[in-house]
């Protein structure tokens, strides 16, 4: 029998639960990964801002950056789930097909 005033885990409010998530950003000086706990219902944007990763990667502009979860692009308003890895994607420096053509031409 539960104690008076005690809540069971099934009656916990969603916003009271914490989720384990990580945020990854590939910067010029290497890959930065931050692991943190956030409230259930947090969005990708919330997680990125809470993580402090924007201070480590000042070149990232969330207004224009592509973001996603496990290599699947998602909007900043997407809600994260337990175990998600939020990723901030950099724009490509070169077209991968063109880079391969140049390498192949050099090897000939």
Number of helices: 3
CATH class designation = Alpha Beta
Oligomer: single chain
Strand content: 25-35%
| Low-pLDDT regions | none
Q: Any idea what the radius of gyration is? A: 20 Å
Average per-residue pLDDT, rounded, comes to 85
User: Based on helices, strands and strand pairing, what is the structural class?
Assistant: alpha+beta
Number of strands: 5
Helical amount: 10-25%
Major sheet description: 5 strands, mixed
CATH-defined architecture: Roll
CATH fold group = Ubiquitin-like (UB roll)
Give the neighbour order of strands across the main sheet: 2-1-5-3-4
Classified in CATH, the superfamily is: Phosphatidylinositol 3-kinase Catalytic Subunit, Chain A, domain 1
Write the layout of secondary structure elements.
Blueprint: E1 18-27, E2 30-39, H1 44-51, H2 53-56, E3 66-69, E4 72-74, E5 85-89, H3 96-107
Parallel strand pairs: 1-5
Antiparallel strand pairs: 1-2, 3-4, 3-5
Short recap of the structure:
Helix content is 22%, strand content 30%.
Keywords:
5-stranded mixed beta sheet; Ubiquitin-like (UB roll)
Explain the overall architecture:
There is one protein chain. A hairpin with a 2-residue loop joins β3 and β4 (about 70-75). The termini are far apart. The chain has a five-stranded mixed β-sheet with strand order 2-1-5-3-4, covered by helices on one side. It has helices at about 45-50, 55, 95-105, and strands at about 20-25, 30-40, 65-70, 70-75, 85-90. It is elongated and about 65 Å long. By secondary structure, it is an alpha+beta fold. The protein has a single domain (about 15-105), classed as Phosphatidylinositol 3-kinase Catalytic Subunit, Chain A, domain 1 (Ubiquitin-like (UB roll)), CATH 3.10.20. The longest helix has 12 residues, at about 95-105. Helix content is about 20%, strand content about 30%.
